[in-house]
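Issue 218. Parser rejects a valid record. Input:
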Amino acid sequence: GAATAPGADAAAPDSALPTLDLTVLRQLVGGDETAVRELVDAFAESSPAQVAALAAALGAGDRAQVASLAHRLKSAARSVGALALGDLCALIEADAREPRARALQHWAGSLESAFDAVLDHMRTRQGV
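Output the parser choked on:
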């Protein structure tokens, strides 16, 4: 399968990145824990629809839509400190913008796993 293709590992996100690093968000809001909580809650509420739309676009092979949605989710993820998800979205976006790239459907499983991990961390650390 695609996982055993030469160079497949080169497209994998950096596993050393944290699933969720709220330090990023705390710096953005000047350490205001209420604001951190509100922004984490907002991400947890709005991002499932974004991920679902991205997954659907991946399944349909719609490169333009994938690139647009991955770009938006990348920015949102990185802003709340979901760094690994943000980097995965960056890879998906780059792949979607490369017309000779392989089919996009292979990203769906990684996207779902990374997103689920972020939500689990948010629930555990913030009580979302």
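Fixed in the parser; the record now loads. Residues 1-12 have pLDDT under 50 and may be disordered.
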